[in-house]
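Q: Hi! First time doing this. I have a protein sequence and I read that you can turn it into a structure. Is that right? Here it is:
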Amino acid sequence: MKFKAILQGFLLVAPIAFGASIIVSYLYGLLIHGVGVIDWEGGFRMGIILGIVIPVVQYYGKKN
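A: Yes, that's right. Below is the predicted 3D structure, encoded as structure tokens:
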């Protein structure tokens, strides 16, 4: 497995997933509860999980 390719995918996907997650959590809190609060913990968790899973799945999908 090419570690460099997966690391590059992580560095690309993780910030995008993090940004999308904090924007969605802010808008959800603002629209539903009337308080604009960002769920930082959920954003970091989503960024790390998707940053690992998506590049690995893409790498193995290209091999087959």
